[in-house]
Amino acid sequence: MTVTCSSLAVSAPTTPFPKLVPETPTDAAEVEALVDRAFGPGRFVKAAERLREGRRPLYDLSFVAREDGRLVGMVRLWSIRVGGTPSILLGPFAVDAAHRGQGLGGILIERACRAAAQAGHDAVLLVGDRAYFAALGFEPVPPGRIRVPGPVDPRRVLVRALRPGGADGLAGAVAPASP
Ligand SMILES: CC(C)(COP(=O)(O)OP(=O)(O)OC[C@H]1O[C@@H](n2cnc3c(N)ncnc32)[C@H](O)[C@@H]1OP(=O)(O)O)[C@@H](O)C(=O)NCCC(=O)NCCS
Questions:
Q1: How far apart are the first and last CA of the chain?
Q2: Closest CA to ligand 1's atom 5
Q3: 0.85 exceeded by the pTM?
Q4: pLDDT tens digits, residue range 149-174?
Q5: Nearest atom, ligand 1, residue 92 CA
Q6: Is the shortest distance between the CB of 100 and ligand 1 below 6 Å?
Q7: Closest C-alpha among 83, 82, 75 to residue 58
Q8: Cβ(95) to ligand 1 under 6 A?
């Protein structure tokens, strides 16, 4: 399609950017298939998985990206406690290999964090690569301050405050919590 703008003729993109919508229970099979492709069988031995197994994500704060109906990206948020404080855990987070490097991952993270902030949450915690998440506002937690169960490299425990000082009080052991 060609859009005429004053004297300029601008070609609109032929492929629309994937559309983000909150996850619903009916997305489960496609979400699991994407996570399997992205992480392989090793995903089940991840320490953060212990905080998620047998539970359901916070659907209103979890998002899927679809292009032409096909699920090409996802991020899930979960209810946890850090010490006695209610908080949010992010993960898994994956983009289909054919759609990587176009900013979709960053957009998924921003969308989920914005939804969590609007729902009144103060901070989001995750276990992941600082090299990727630093640009999205996540910072390492001082060693030992937040304890994720299982064998976790403490340098991979990252937190993003959703308001000024929102992560300041977070300390203690991480445990699952009811949504
Ligand atoms: C991580 C992931 C979701 C990023 O999705 P994406 O849509 O490609 O993300 P963006 O387009 O916003 O960012 C892409 C950039 O991040 C970089 N990047 C991706 N994973 C990275 C990592 N683990 N560490 C450092 N940089 C990383 C890419 O090289 C790319 O850099 P460039 O823009 O300089 O080329 C995707 O690579 C993926 O699904 N990976 C497998 C699953 C995974 O590792 N999930 C995160 C674990 S918590």
A1: 45
A2: 105
A3: yes
A4: 988 899 999 999 999 999 998 999 99
A5: 48
A6: yes
A7: 75
A8: yes
